[in-house]
């Protein structure tokens, strides 16, 4: 259950980061409201997941989902650059999350 909570918290991080961009520095009401509400939800779910997951693992997976998701959202919604170096950077984040998650499951047989 904790992994589901971290995943949902990470997805909410993508929403709040995207809404924050759209809030134009918190000068637009509804994107600002969406930012704050989803941020609180994201932090809340992460804090519940941290009751049973190691701090570093939970935080890294949460940040990784948010970072890679925001990277993808930026490409889709804002036409941000997509080049081999940015793809490699995102892939390294995903690899790091996978290794961190595997490291919490004990030794690999």
UniProtKB/TrEMBL annotation:
GO MF annotation terms: transmembrane transporter activity
Residue ranges of the TM segments: 27-46, 58-79, 85-103
Subcellular location(s) of the protein: Cell membrane
Family annotation (Gene3D superfamilies): 1.10.3730.20
A single BP term in Gene Ontology: xenobiotic detoxification by transmembrane export across the plasma membrane
Record membrane topology: Multi-pass membrane protein
Gene Ontology CC, one term: plasma membrane
InterPro entries found in the cross-reference section: EmrE-like, Small_drug/metabolite_transptr, Small_multidrug_res
First-listed, main subcellular location of the protein, grouped into a coarse class: membrane
Keywords: Cell membrane, Membrane, Transmembrane, Transmembrane helix, Transport
Pfam families given in the database record: Multi_Drug_Res
Family, per entry: Belongs to the drug/metabolite transporter (DMT) superfamily. Small multidrug resistance (SMR) (TC 2.A.7.1) family. Gdx/SugE subfamily.
Protein name according to UniProt: Guanidinium exporter
Biological source species: Roseicyclus elongatus DSM 19469
Upper lineage: Bacteria, Pseudomonadati, Pseudomonadota, Alphaproteobacteria, Rhodobacterales
């Amino acid at each position: 259950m904790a992994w589901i909570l971290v995943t949902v918290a990470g997805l909410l991080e993508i929403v709040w980061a995207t809404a924050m961009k759209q809030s134009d520095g918190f000068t637009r009401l509804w994107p600002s409201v969406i930012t704050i509400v989803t941020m609180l939800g994201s932090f809340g779910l992460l804090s519940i997941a941290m009751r049973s997951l190691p701090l570093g693992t939970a935080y890294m997976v949460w940040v990784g989902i948010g970072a890679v998701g925001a990277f993808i959202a930026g490409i889709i919604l804002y036409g941000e650059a997509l080049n081999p170096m940015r793809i490699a950077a995102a892939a390294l984040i995903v690899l790091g999350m996978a290794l961190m998650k595997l490291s919490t499951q004990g030794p690999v047989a």
